[in-house]
Design brief:
- Helix content is about 45%, strand content about 15%.
- With about 120 residues, it is of the alpha+beta class.
- It has one domain.
- It has a 4-stranded mixed beta sheet, with helices on both faces.
């Protein structure tokens, strides 16, 4: 499994040998686009790109789990493209706010908790 994220909480937190963490210093949509690039390299989505109840324009953190496949997965590509379009639409309606550090940490925790619970369910 490959976990791509812009959430610093994951940098050294995942100690599993079956999960590789790649941190990118980018925004929410940047992570979605990185996932799309990986899908073009035969990765498949494991988590939905728009998981959770926090709207794309309400947080800056996103983590996506993918797995390497043998062939190109059109379903993953369609889902990531729809997710990029949806996130862009939200960002155009209401630009992301400049959150104070405490709120940003709360968003990091939400993202981290959702993904770590998902990993626990997968394994």
């Amino acid at each position: 499994m490959l976990l791509i994220t812009n959430n610093e909480f994951f940098k050294d937190a995942i100690k599993r040998t079956d999960v590789t963490v790649q941190f990118f210093d980018t925004d929410y949509i940047g992570i979605l686009k990185k996932a799309r690039d990986l899908i073009h390299q035969n990765y498949h989505l494991v988590t939905h790109p728009l998981y959770g109840s926090v709207k794309p324009n309400e947080t800056v953190f996103r983590t996506v789990i993918l797995k390497k496949g043998d062939k190109f997965d059109i379903t993953s590509l369609e889902l990531i493209e729809e997710s990029i379009n949806t996130a862009t639409k939200f960002m155009n309606i209401s630009k992301p706010k400049r959150w104070p550090a405490e709120i940003l940490d709360d968003f990091r925790v939400v993202d981290y908790d959702i993904i770590t619970q998902t990993l626990e369910r997968i394994y």
